[in-house]
Specification:
- The chain is of the alpha+beta class.
- The chain is globular and about 55 Å long.
- The chain has helices at about 35-45, 75-85, 160-170; strands at about 5-10, 15-20, 65-70, 90-95, 105-115, 120-125, 130-145, 145-155, 195-200, 210.
- Belongs to the pseudouridine synthase RluA family.
């Protein structure tokens, strides 16, 4: 089991660097999840017996790594959840793509539809029932061995939108076989998508807080 990497602890606000492959919420019995690790950390640090409250205002998909925030009390958890619901949290991702995009920077806009009873989305026409708009901006930071390292700023927060939108232009996220990638990583539950930076309002002081998570060491072997 990986060691918990705490990257921000500011009053009730806690930020950690989630490893790829670790379940962020709702793990089956006997499987360790990220909240389990955070609760264990809080128990030990603050010498708290019994159950420890942990607010979970958002989550990352299992194969994704990076910034994940929690709250140590319910009032602040509600304030953080409201920011995510209103989409005022600014999120920047880094991704390694299997192919290099034709344009070094750009904006992707698609209508995506979540397939019922499946953890997967597809791109549909704008007038398709249930389809929702997905927008992002990207820029290529580096290229290596026909791969590209891109920085992605989300304008919407749709399920799997980075993964399906880049796959749609022929540049799937490295190791993301669910969306057409041909590559793989050492961990079959990992893909090369990382929540690098998050900017939000502190739930008590209301000033801006920026949290950044170092990229996974495994990316070094991919040329980045």
């Amino acid at each position: 089991m990986p060691e918990l990497e705490v990257i921000c602890e500011d009053g009730p606000l806690l930020g950690v660097n989630k490893p790829s492959g670790l379940i962020a919420q709702g793990a089956p019995e006997g499987v360790v999840s990220l909240p389990d690790m955070v609760r264990d950390y809080l128990k030990k640090k603050y010498n708290k017996p019994g159950n420890v409250y942990l607010g979970i205002p958002h989550r990352l998909d299992r194969p994704v790594s990076g910034v994940t925030v929690f709250s140590r009390n319910s009032k602040c958890a509600a304030r953080l959840s409201e920011q995510f619901a209103k989409r005022t949290v600014e999120k920047t991702y880094l991704a390694i793509l299997e192919s290099i995009p034709e344009k070094s920077s750009g904006r992707l806009e698609n209508w995506i539809y979540r397939i019922p009873n499946e953890s997967r989305v597809v791109i549909r026409d704008a007038d398709s029932p249930g389809a929702k708009i997905a927008r992002l901006r990207y820029r290529v930071l580096e290229t290596s061995k026909k791969r590209a390292l891109v920085e992605v700023d989300l304008e919407t927060g749709r399920m799997h939108q980075i993964r399906v939108q880049f796959a749609n232009i022929g540049c799937p996220v490295y190791a993301d076989t669910k969306y057409g990638a041909n590559s793989s990583m050492n961990d079959p539950n990992a893909i090369a998508l990382h929540a690098f930076r998050m900017k939000l309002k502190h739930p008590v002081r209301y000033d801006d807080v920026i949290i950044e998570a170092p990229i996974p060491r495994s990316w070094n072997s991919l040329g980045f």
